[in-house]
């Protein structure tokens, strides 16, 4: 009998799907509040594992003797030890294009909040002594400004369409997107990150997390003064310390961050004191609509790998299937 282990909270529609699977004879273990040790016991007998963004280490994978598929509730998989899965020939599935609209909307909100100084404006009403800030907020229009999208995949392309609608000038930096797959439309590529940073008034990050920050102290020094930054990608994509310094010296006018180097961020988070930064707890992809789609998709993908009907484009490590 198939054992499906779901490690992390799902939308109620996904939970209902799990109940239906149980009725069909699938053994389902659903662990809502997850930390790695608590599910490690169940993983020993699991055939399929659904994970949120918690780490999935080589040590845990080694205990999963029967594991035939890992299915991500989401698209980023930096927390999964893919090399350990590859060594065992275990496919890793992602949900594909089901949360990118939500992410792009969150990025658009961050850019607008930065331009309009939303947090300071909010403070200026909640604290009556600050009402006079209304004449000093340095808020701006985004219309006509240059928006650089770093990473022109699902979310980056959705944001581009929204930003064009706001009359922004949009260009994208994505050296890994083949020119034959570059989408038709007004958004042209910028070949180097140096040129891109010198051109942009605003930027939004939509890349996977790499080994080191793409936006480090050098990158911040290449930006025009007054930059607005949106990050819904992953915390490690930008250096938080360098961002804090750039906010203090005015090179960066405002920022929006949904993701952090360490999650949850520690009490001493360097950005906590900046009221020109809008923060959210890694929720860009967690709207009601996207949560429902992700819950169904990650369950479907796990089962589709087991019965051999998975769309190969949803596999991070296609070779694992062969
Ligand atoms: N905050 C949240 O709730 C969510 C965060 N994410 C994050 O956003 C990232 C992007 O998501 P999608 O657009 O769906 O992924 P995607 O895979 O469709 O697009 C990523 C793009 O980044 C490009 N890229 C990779 N490395 C790059 C680099 N060093 N410089 C420039 N471009 C680079 C790739 O060629 C690709 O076109 C995910 O990897 C994930 O980490 C995704 C969904 C929800
Ligand atoms: O899609 C992603 O990469 C996300 O960050 C969302 O993942 P989660 O819903 O937390 O498993």
UniProtKB/TrEMBL annotation:
GO function term, MF aspect, one: phosphoglycerate dehydrogenase activity
Enzyme Commission code: 1.1.1.95
SUPFAM superfamilies cross-referenced by the UniProt entry: Formate/glycerate dehydrogenase catalytic domain-like, NAD(P)-binding Rossmann-fold domains
Domain (D-isomer specific 2-hydroxyacid dehydrogenase catalytic) ranges: 6-311
UniProtKB keywords: Oxidoreductase
Zinc in keyword set: no
Domain D-isomer specific 2-hydroxyacid dehydrogenase NAD-binding: 108-284
Pfam families named among the record's database cross-references: 2-Hacid_dh, 2-Hacid_dh_C
Gene3D superfamilies: NAD(P)-binding Rossmann-like Domain
Highest rank taxon of the organism: Bacteria
Protein's UniProt keywords contain Oxidoreductase: yes
Enzyme class of the recorded protein, top EC level: oxidoreductase
Family per similarity comment: Belongs to the D-isomer specific 2-hydroxyacid dehydrogenase family.
Name under which the protein is recorded: D-3-phosphoglycerate dehydrogenase
Species name: Boseongicola aestuarii
Gene it is expressed from: serA_2
